[in-house]
Write a structure and sequence with these properties.
five-stranded mixed beta sheet, TIM Barrel, homotetramer, alpha/beta, 15 helices
């Protein structure tokens, strides 16, 4: 057996396996001030860029932000980093990721005992690519919270993760709303065990409860220490979830009465967290707006029916944040030409595209959101040689947010607006503006330093030079520390 | 080739087939008055029985009803029938039948071109067993209306049929709500053709429409000449619909918002017809009551959750009629012991049983309703040797209403109440009280003459001596004239 | 009700249906001699064409055949038809048709009670297009024999049909070798009833019998009055038989030991009928040759493995007839480009194509055989809009034999050889040379008169001017008399 | 992180997992002679028991065997163990195990990377229960050989394993012969990868090869270092392999021609290893006997057809060994009453039972064989609560051989015959008699010491006091060292 310890990583090989353990020291917390000097700052508020900026980070927070032309106190022990000629944006955010995704029997069986490892890998890939904060809006609650807490305690590196757990009202992976065929084929004990991990008593049976009983269940779930709550207004379209010809598209059915939705929203707000929706039809979107939720996921996806103008106006009035998941032009073409594979008609593609443009023009506050997961989990579900999947794939974590920028740019979004959509708006939508979303005094010191100006071309968001999270410089090269899906 | 004409029936045999054609002469319409003299009349109003009654029928209506002790004018040409010692009840009704049912590929393919013949067979079996009026609440609209009209025109004998066509919001037989597996397996052209026949543009896509668009579609459908409209508040549980292990139980999902339901109810009422619901949960039942529908099918079937007392009270206040489909004790036992086959847990069985008793005791106006179809169509779906299906089967047309009487009697319903549930209540629920439901002056002359007193024992409803519909004596022996499923 | 009698056809319309009955008079049998004078005769023996021929038909047989240059006695009552400038070939034959085919639940349920009508339609379409004799090598035995006998008795027109019934060793339509998914989905009683009609005790269980028991079963089946026997050496590849993703390709498994095959061949020969095989691999083909069968269906279809030269030599030595089912160049391209749909790899296509050419060059006696059925039954199994199916479809009865001529011509077959393959060779393979296959004295008077010379271009086989079968002129316009699938 | 080393086992716990590593020292090899003194020896030859025996083991072999009444030299360093009052039998053998089994997607995905660990667990459970040698007749070849070699090198404890790998002619787990549904549902890359591990180019395509090509493939496979070769004469019945209603029973199809079988047998023998068959019909059994294989697995399983007397006689003459897998009376009852679950008709049960008795009475040399695998793998495939599975389960490794003894005893087998069937006969069948199967001089020192006399009651085989393998005392308590399925 051989042992080696290099950079906090212990490796040893034995007869049976190779094991890599990471001792994450969090030593960075002990550092003094960091001063970033000379870059152009785009602070996420939408304000004009500040040239020759000075940013002083003390511990995990921004202490002072100013211009080199004015005097700024810098402590003697400060580590001054010259970032002249570079561009600084707030730490990026993704309003909708799934650090664990893929509902095939094969995938879940293989990784059932390693859920936290996969989630960790996801959080580290996100951080590596500039996402200092991600919002996981569907996944196995307890493992997600465990990784979240481990990252927050500094035990392991990773993007800051906020967790919703189940989509209230939907089944677990092997159930009505996802891989229903899996529930017929797989061993019942396995099916029930997995579904229980995901549903945590917030599955389809919630739709059957009286308002009072529902209130009790929502309260219990909010008290599970979730960071935000997501509920399904209408059903899921998971026709691609199994290897079977066609499963049911449940987009046209509703899961909750307006009264029930009021209960969900009210009880979630009592827990001082935000509430958001899954919708995939205009009818459902209208319900969500009526329910005064804080935010709506994939709000532009409304089947083949465009969002009515009146509803867009209502969205504006109620100031509900709207997460969009655009496709690039190239991707739209690929999906339209393979509608059998992607189960999206060209008409749908077009309606969604137009919805996104109309929402943007109307001024509805939009959020960068991708549904991204590690690697391309879909690849495990279908033939590998279906190369259409690789066309500017919008859901591969690490790459997805850059694709989002490209797609929205093609739809007419200005770079500054894109940056705000990926930072300030998300923090605002999730009620985190006090700590996150902009480079402002006293906020958590999350930022991304770019080599090229993103306002010239949003593609320059890819030119990452450095990522700082919680005032610490991220060792991007080391991430993910224990690659599983991406090794 | 041989021809023969016997009793209005032409038969001939050729090389290829034997054909039987019926020339239904409707000669009875030419008769003069019929006088039924001496029976005990239970008139369907709930009033005490009238002994030694005299009922004068002129044409298709009751002209005079009285007692032999009083003088009643009888025309000279009148045909006086002595029915002393017998018992007369109004023509029976079933508030929920499906003259065509069975959604297997095999059945529909076999009979696609003979839908009207099957429906006719059903209407004749119903009439033979005392049902002078039935309400078909799901089936292929145009064929049902064709048979309805042919019966109404006197071209063929049969129960008076009122037709709803599709359940608004549900798919056709090969779709989300019924035999979904059929839609994967069967040829697409066949699937689409059959679904179109059943859906008539009132399928699942209606759930996606705006209130205005929905209003337009409902108006169109009401104008199709339907007799009443049924819509689905929640989804269908059709797990037994195909030969497959498990399909989805969609009982927990909702199909329409309250606003959409208001539109459906309002627009249906504008057409001067009644509106009713499909529900299978307490949540859906509450929605139906809120929507102020006229009647609710299988209102006691609420999954594993009992109807709350408050909701029963609301049902009482709103005076919504409630169709129930009870099981006999023996049947409940058989279903509970074979819950895998019947897909009903013992808990469900018990909840429904208790619901029925509670509704009855509360005074909610109940209706006899059976879901019955010709023969046992389910038998074609499963192994023939599963003899559990034969235990007091509650859905075999011709037998089902007698089973209903037995089941409700076991739950404590008095015979008089049963008779009212099978006559007056149904007419009232469907807005037909002016013409149907009781033996009263000027109403259509539908009645059943029994050999034994049904108030002594509701089983005596089986002792049918004569059925009169529209003032004509039904030749029960001749029915069904062209048996297909029951030959 | 309206009756009309026109040309032996009685039509009447009633309330329920329109019925058309045909009284087939067979009056032609009463005619005297027919003399065809002046055409160029290609007699099917392979001999050079005879110009200015005279063919005298007496009753159902050729009486005299000669040249106009020589004196030929013609009776006074003879009906002399001047066919100068035309071309006469023997009545065409197809060595492999399926007058009933399509194993979908939908199709079989729809037509279960009309099997004979469909078969009749097929036999009439065949005759209309010049096929005076067809060999049905798989189908429902009793209905096929009934139609065969009715045609033979002159009760209805149609191609002369020889019948095999089941392929010994294979399951019925809803079983292992065809639509296995159908057997899971469809009602068991239906499945069993249909399978019994097709299997007639010669299904998969025969593979399990001892030689003695097998002998008994074969004897019984031969005594069922079949015209020839076909057995499966290896399993069936029916992956396209159901709407399901993939069924099993059983081409690699064997159904009988050599000893069992010897029993089948021996016992069939004892019944004085020929025996043929279903094979789809080289291994199976070798087995068939070893078993000294009389003929092999689709002998060139050997998966992705070419027939070894040694085996071709053995086929030559044993003089076993070999039915081939070629594809045209255009069709091969369409199938190769849609191998997912047609479940044939480009490699298979190529191997089969080369096999056909090699067999032809080697001099193995080839037979025209198509697997054809009425219309395009496959169309009911798949999306209608898959237009690939329409590319020179090789299995549409009425068209298939012309496509065969085209395909073989593209592979280098000379017109004279094609004509022999479609006439004399088939008669020889089935032991019918005494009566059929060539235009020779005393044989049954089957022939096709063409407007154009088929030796110039085999496409001219389409230029049919007249078809004579059993000495009677076929009223081609009237066929099929009662179109069902082709109306 | 905590480390601990106890008895050659290193354990440590880290953040992520608990790892247990075993350093198997094989120190026992260094011991001097072991002398077992005073027990009654039943040496496996069938000879009468030898009371007061002395067995001297030197290294891994028996050096001397005699009676305490005679003088036997014992070296001074010998470790003398007094086993007076006990009973010694040869190390037990199982002629048919599957150290890895279960073909569900879930199971294989979960353990794909841990195949060797599962196999190791199996080999250790076997050894713990007295099986010093097992023959694995289907499983993943390379992992099985790796474990085999590691045990042989003394690196880990475990039963001596002989390995066949794939059943020549059958598909891998996700293919025609096992979980075919799995191959439709699971990701194609996974399906192909797993099938490749199992098939190693000896799958269904072998049935399509010419004798020469087949010879080449068999040679290659024999050279893979397999210990014996098993081929399938007929197909597999794997209807219980997936969660699906019914898969195909391929028992009636054959995979190889007699000529191909001769090639397989001949080429395997050239590699100096034995060849055996998978059969499940009388036809296949006859083929196997004709092919002069060395041994036949589950030779009594012949569907619903009894083995003919003539074939039993032929088995006797050819001296082919016959492995049987009996059911106890209780188990037969449970299986018969749940034939839907076990997919065995009562008739089958009875035929197999009678076959086993007839073979035994005829004197065919029988072998103990169980198909056993670790724990109850079937349990993962079906509902856990189906308690029928627990009734004297014949395939649970560690227990299965004791159930075999009980079952055969119920069928009339004498204890001495049972012991020979579990030792000498197996060694003979596999050509290992020189080294294994009996307690005789110079053979490998494998034996089991029992507390009670197995000749009194075969149930006493369970009273294991000590197991010695290769001259070493097995630390039974420690096994399995790293339990996975049985923890």
């Amino acid at each position: 057996m051989k042992f080696s310890i290099v950079n906090n990583v212990i490796t040893f090989r034995s007869l049976f396996m190779s094991v890599t353990l990471v001792v994450w020291s969090g030593l960075a917390l002990c550092q003094g001030e960091i001063v970033l000097k000379g870059a152009t700052l785009i602070d996420g508020t939408g304000a004009p860029p500040l040239k020759n900026s000075i940013i002083v980070i003390d511990g995990d927070r921004f202490k002072r932000i100013g211009s080199t032309s004015k005097h700024i106190n810098i402590s003697k022990n400060a580590r001054v980093i010259d970032v002249s000629g570079k561009y600084i944006v707030p730490g990026l955010m993704d309003a909708n990721v799934h650090l664990f995704r893929d509902v095939s029997i094969e995938f879940i069986a293989r990784y059932e005992d390693r859920l936290e490892e996969l989630i960790t890998e996801g959080a580290q890939i996100a951080l590596k690519h500039g996402l200092t904060t991600v919002f996981d809006s569907w996944g196995p609650l307890q493992p997600l919270m465990n990784v979240r807490d481990r990252i927050n305690r500094g035990e392991i590196p990773g993007s800051r993760v906020y967790v919703a757990g189940n989509i209230v009202g939907l089944s677990g992976p092997f159930g009505r709303d996802f891989n229903a065929v899996g529930s017929w084929i797989a061993p019942k004990t396995f099916v029930n065990r997995i579904n229980a991990i995901f549903e945590e008593n917030t599955g389809p049976q919630l739709s059957l409860l009286s308002p009072n009983e529902l209130r009790g269940e929502i309260r219990k779930y909010v008290n599970r220490d979730i960071d935000f709550l997501k509920y399904a207004v209408n059903g899921h379209d998971c026709r691609g979830c199994s290897g079977f010809p066609e499963l049911l598209n449940l987009s046209s059915v509703l899961l909750f009465t307006p009264e029930a939705q009021d209960v969900i929203v009210d009880e979630t707000h009592k827990g001082n967290i935000t509430v958001q929706t899954h919708t995939s039809s205009v009818v459902a979107l209208q319900q969500a707006v009526n329910a005064r939720v804080d935010m709506m996921q994939h709000c532009a996806m409304t089947g083949e029916i465009p969002i009515p103008d009146a509803l867009i106006n209502q969205m504006l009035e109620t100031k509900i944040f709207c997460a969009v998941q655009p496709r690039t032009s190239k991707r739209m073409k690929a999906e339209s030409e393979n509608s059998n594979l992607f189960r999206r008609t060209p008409k749908m593609q077009n309606v969604w595209h137009e919805n996104q443009i109309r929402l943007m023009k109307a001024g509805v506050p939009l959020l960068l959101a991708t549904d991204a997961g590690v690697a391309n989990p879909i690849k495990t579900e279908v033939e590998v040689d279906q190369k259409e999947f690789d066309v500017e794939h919008p859901e591969m974590l690490g790459e997805a947010h850059f694709i989002w920028f490209r797609a929205m740019s093609q739809k007419g979004m200005k770079p500054m607006q894109s940056i705000v959509s990926a930072t300030r708006n998300i923090a605002a939508a999730y009620g985190k503006l006090q700590d996150l979303g902009t480079v402002e005094k006293n906020k958590l010191a999350d930022l991304v330093i770019l080599n090229k100006n993103p306002l010239d071309n949003i593609e320059n968001m890819r030119s990452i030079s450095m990522v700082i999270k919680n005032g610490e410089i991220v060792d991007r090269e080391a991430l993910p520390i224990n690659p599983i899906l991406t090794k």
